């Protein structure tokens, strides 16, 4: 099959976007990234899940001569992206362990003879001498277009998705110095970005950072009482019949929760690393290809999942960090339609996470970082103001209150912690900004510990001035002072807390500091508005949308691909709203490129005509 480069009449980025992928215009920084990489530049791209990262390397691959090599960590991700590209008329393939010898040789022959626009490979496959020899041939014949390194955060040794094979990719600029590289990820704080640059040797790459905001996701965090029943109520009230992911901390909890949900009428499947690879693959395939499946999983599930119509992600245990929470919740609503991120948490979750950190075999430096990341996450769940503001602030992004999270919709009951916060800040200052929260709390509560006496901190004016609050309440105060950026954490000095400029108004009496009231039982939730249901504007019947989904399911089954590879929900919704009557009108619907118009256009128009 000839590559797309040979069949695009006017090989411009907008032309490819419209005629191959079916979109009328770029979003955000997509166009700038495409132009930079297509022109031969290196790039580091941070773009939220659902923000269109794949187009940032797929379009340059079609604009440049030769084959683009896409490094991808998971077989499922390769399968889905290649299926979607083939449906769009692109010459794409993958090489991984799921292929038999004959099929793999066919792919290698297509690669050698220049018939592929994109080839997806795992990092360990790419680094084999045999594959590097094939790349050398492409380089020597000027048929190597670019390298795309997807899920680039896997190079970070501090992250829970660390893949040691990614470290070997630093060989690429040495061996192929003239070939552009683009590294992409949906989540990376400043430290992780620096790791990506250093370990992949992308120091001179242009950095593109999109907003981390996912405005279509509603964040809801509730106190844990009976987590399974709370979860069941949430699913029944907000997302019944929709696809979703439920994250649990342990394998046993995954199994128990999935079985319990099934007993209560929810189509749920378990997924964790303790299952056989065949069973995991079967459950993942069902989740990807069937509508309305709820996957109950550990964090072993999720990275690289392209399913765009996941309407909710729920946590019934506290995640390990804000990065993990952002990445996991980001798997909801990739199609841009309303979705929900729901979590039930309790103080015992924090105790359990701290114990896991303390008992791990990691270095002390890693443990300190893990404890701080856990504290930052607890700061988010304890927050009294907009969840989205807190989440985005972690990624150094400012935002207005969203009006669409639980705290915005139903502001929590609070207590005035202004005086306590001033005492805490004063204690940080009096002790020289050299200590962590544990020691500062001992000083505030008047505890004559060995460390307090050794440093003569019992003689400070702040010694004992906070005896009215217990240790748990003080930890909440310090977490929120960090979360709201009045205090900063110095990781190089054993998580010492230091004052920031933001602390001045509070210390001068020009600001107040309110904290959430901790209750034994959650108060009434008040009115809740459904965020995850797929709404069709008033007056337009949903019958056509339902028939389109049924047609899509049958078509996907015939072609042995996930339903969303045919057309996603957002495209079907747009068809249901606009009811196009001609192929020309249908071509104006987002998500319908030339190949899909040719393959499915007549069938879709018949459904529109037949449905009242």
Percent of residues in beta strands? 5-15%
Inertia-based shape: globular
Low-confidence stretches: 1-10, 520-532
What's the number of domains? 4
The CATH architecture of the largest domain can be named as 3-Layer(aba) Sandwich
- Strands, total number: 17
Work out the helix count. Answer: 27
Task: Please summarize the sheet with the most strands.
Answer: 7 strands, parallel
Using the coordinates shown, work out and report the CATH topology of the largest domain: Rossmann fold
Helix content: 40-55%
Major sheet: arrangement of strands: 3-4-2-5-6-1-7
Distance between the termini: 41 Å
Rounded to the nearest angstrom, the radius of gyration is: 26 Å
Question: Average pLDDT across residues?
Answer: 88
Structural class: alpha/beta
CATH homologous superfamily of the largest domain? P-loop containing nucleotide triphosphate hydrolases
Please give the CATH class of the largest domain. Alpha Beta
Domain HRDC: 538-612
Catalytic activity: Couples ATP hydrolysis with the unwinding of duplex DNA by translocating in the 3'-5' direction
Keywords: ATP-binding, DNA damage, DNA recombination, DNA repair, DNA-binding, Helicase, Hydrolase, Isomerase, Metal-binding, Nucleotide-binding, Zinc
Cofactor: Mg(2+); Zn(2+)
Summarize, please.
The chain is α/β, with parallel strands linked by helices and 612 residues long.
Notes on the protein architecture:
Its EC number is 5.6.2.4. It comes from Azoarcus taiwanensis. Its cofactor is Mg(2+); Zn(2+). It is a single chain. By secondary structure, this protein is α/β, with parallel strands linked by helices. It has four domains: 4-209, Rossmann fold (3-Layer(aba) Sandwich); 217-364, 3-Layer(aba) Sandwich (Rossmann fold); 414-516, Orthogonal Bundle (Arc Repressor Mutant, subunit A); 543-610, DNA polymerase, domain 1 (Orthogonal Bundle). 44% of the residues lie in helices and 13% in strands. The chain is built from 27 helices and 17 strands. A seven-stranded parallel β-sheet has the order 3-4-2-5-6-1-7, with helices on both faces. Strands 8-13-12-9-11-10 form a six-stranded parallel β-sheet, with helices on both faces. Helix 15 packs across helix 21 and helix 18 (418-430) crosses helix 19. The chain is globular. Mean pLDDT is 88; it is low at 1-10 and 520-532.
